Amino acid sequence: MSPMTLSEELEWRGFVNQTTFDDTKTLDAEKLTFYHGFDASADSQTIGNLAAMMMDKVFMRHGYKAVLLAGGATSLIGDPGGKDKERNLQDEATVAANVKNAEKQLQKIFSGLDFTLVNNLDWYKDMNVLHFLRDVGKHFSMTPLVQRDYISKRMGTDGAGISYTEFSYTILQGYDFWHLYKEHGVKLQLAGSDQWGNSLSGVDLIRRAEGAEAHVITCSLIIDKTTGKKFGKSEAGAVWLDENKTSVYQFYQFWLNVADEGVEEYLKIYTEFNPQEVQSIMDKFTQDRSTRHAQKALAYAVTMLVHGKEKAENVRRVSEVVFGARDFKALSQEELELLASEIPVVQAQKEDNLAVLLKESGLSSSLSESKRFIESGGVYVNNQKSDRISEDMFHQGRALIRRGKNKIALIKK
Questions:
Q1: Within 10 Å of residue 281's Cβ, how many Cβ atoms?
Q2: 6-63 pLDDT, tens digit each
Q3: What digits encode the pLDDT tens for the residues 255-264?
């Protein structure tokens, strides 16, 4: 099979939502320079941002030049899109630290690819208000701005209102596009679907100020097919790219536990597998869904992209032990430490028996309940059904006990 064109790959991966192009096949002819802005209002990007990064990588693989923007200035204002009330403004030091974190994550995700990294604070910090109002503001008509969904909702009868600060956000983003058009030859903005209106501000500004044509493509918001809600939330909240906010183990487990209904879509969006590879994964998966082969392929690929091969290998081996597919005693010291950081660890006393350890680890509420679990055959030591724990079961001073399918703890002597 011949390689896909850019427009074909974008369609296959499901990336195109809204666009100013009449036909996306136009993208196959001229290799444009695009920019994509990333918010720095948090100290880490999320897997929602990662989906947008994966769209960027498709363009880059097809020869498009990339300018990636960390919003050091716009994050001081805060994007009002999707918000029903005014944001709390963050101080400059916090946003500056967030920008550095964003830049590190972008450099890691786009490692090996050629791109230009910019911070919009660099062109706003010395701009005075008169210059901005005369040279930028005069190109904007108020009518389309107040008709933007997120602005009109806030200004309506039941809205919470909107300050001039947040109202001006769309103008700032429009100016970013114009500035990058002049400085880097950017003619295309890539964005999430929630940025469609803000992106059009740049298209309009470039047309009015330069008499030139610029374009926008947005990617769809990813929806969890089982819940109908925004994809990328776990029980603990957002799934972050920073391992200090979402550990590598938690990150891997999130992908491992995605629903069958959405796994093929996530393979297309969050990995660089080609159609043949995705089809092969899905064929094997549909033969026996209980193996979760597609989820395992997804979890490993995304974890390797975000956290590197070594950590992906470690967490995969640990997960295989947790779910009984690998011998507990095959774990290295580093992998044992990884597991110990994620599950309850109980210090075993010399006289403790299995029933006591079940209770101490929180896997049962009482000794009598522990004994019932043991007698019913629902307790495992190192993934082997057991009614006792003994010295020979320990590996590097630890043993894994499990009740049922997923209640687990480490015993440390």
A1: 22
A2: 999 999 999 999 999 999 999 999 899 999 999 898 999 999 999 999 999 999 999 9
A3: 999 999 999 9
pLDDT, tens digit, for every residue of 186-240? 999 999 998 998 899 999 999 999 999 999 999 988 988 888 888 887 666 899 9
Pairing between strand 384-385 and 398-403?
A: unpaired
CATH architecture observed for domain 233-340 = Orthogonal Bundle (1.10)
**Sign of the alpha-carbon dihedral angle for 58, 64, 65, 66:** negative
Q: Are 301 and 271 in contact (CB under 8 A)?
A: yes
Which of 3.10.290.10, 1.10.357.10, 3.50.50.60, 3.30.450.20 would CATH assign to domain 345-412?
3.10.290.10
Domain map (residue ranges) of the chain: 6-219, 233-340, 345-412
Domain spanning 6-219, CATH architecture: 3-Layer(aba) Sandwich (3.40)
Residue 267, number of CB atoms within 10 A of its CB: 24
* Reduced DSSP (H G I as helix, E B as strand, rest coil) percent helix, strand, coil of the chain, to 5: 50, 15, 35
Considering the entire predicted model, what is its pTM?
Answer: 0.89
